[in-house]
Amino acid sequence: MRKKIKEAQRLQKLAYSKDRFNRAYPKKALAIEKLLIERAFSLALEYIPPGAHVLDIGCDDGTIARMAIKRASIVIGIDISEANIRRAKQVTQNPSIQFYYSPIENYKTNLTFDVILMFELIEHLGDPIMVLKKVNNFLKENGTLILSTPNFRSLTRELKRCLNRIPIVREICSKISLKPPDEIYKLHIKEYDLSEIRKMLNCSGFTIKSKNGLILFPLLFKIFKWNTWLTKIVISSGSLFPSLAGHILLAAKKYEKT
What we know:
With 258 residues, the protein is an alpha/beta fold. The protein has helices spanning 2-15, 27-44, 63-68, 82-91, 128-138, 155-164, 167-175, 194-203, 218-223, 228-236; strands spanning 53-57, 74-79, 97-101, 113-119, 139-150, 206-214, 247-254. The protein has one domain: Vaccinia Virus protein VP39 (Rossmann fold). Strands 3-2-1-4-5-7-6 form a seven-stranded mixed β-sheet, with helices on both faces.
């Protein structure tokens, strides 16, 4: 298991090997990414009580941490990328936000938190259940974990699986090098559907309180990405059918001790 965790951490670092903030990175891509983050956080906001202590795991450049501090009193962000942490510190002036370079598997703290955020992270982990149990210990009683992740059983993928059963369609897809529906992103360890995440959360001491989704039709997202207003509508469409959305967003409560 240690080797698997080390390999997962290597892939996480590889995912951030390019400087996403230099001039070569498309400004439009950053703008779309920002819209996704804003939507995910707006759905999560109701679970962050005023004055909360928040831990943001996989904090990236600190964008979500800077959003969270508007309601929280303390926000700590950790990330496996040193470049991300440097960037976060450079653009964050609030002393109530602290950033640390650390993989979640190695992170230690005596603090406990009201809310822990794990956006687009669980698919990168070598031992997600171990991490979820560790996260559970970091939470206060009745604390909340909010996570998002790509959906392995999204509507788009299910449609691709149906079409892929037709020989001529499968042949055309192979000729144009279209990614098979069960193929995951190369820097992900594993991608999950809603039922798999529910099982992992349940055995790690959590119960799901709400589920939501981001982007029901990714193709429309690509078509309308030139228009901010239409892009926001496409992103919000995932809320209609969370189990079929491109990305799943969950709020899970720590079990209360009896």
